[in-house]
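If you are new to this repository, start here. Below is one unmodified record pulled from the training split, so you can see the exact layout before writing a loader.
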Amino acid sequence: MQKFRKFEIFFIVFVLLNAITGCGADIEIEDFSREIWKSDRNGCDGRRAGEIEALLGAKNILLGKSEHEILSLLGRPDKNELYRRSQKFFIYYIDPAPACTGNLHEESKTKYLSIRINAIGNISEIYLYK
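And here is the target side for that same chain:
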């Protein structure tokens, strides 16, 4: 009976913490426009390049945030990559993606932002690949 009580308390605390963090305010980054970022799908217009410096400057703010929060900030990723142990990567192109130019062989030369999401749904790494 004692173990069941501990589990109940743990469960209630877990639910409350998720409710509090899940209902928080949107992430705000100085000098970053989420509208510009979201409207430049695949980086085709080259407008994300003007936003990347502010975004990378807030890297420490973003680490540990939830997948939901990053989707709210940056919108749907241009590309999703699934990884082992329920991890995934969100890819956001900074330079025009191969889908914009029609040349699929340019991918290794395309600048993109990679966001790693761990198994519990939090941001664990952010890298800019050039």
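Two things worth knowing about this chain: Residues 2-22 form the longest helix (21 residues). The longest strand covers residues 123-129.
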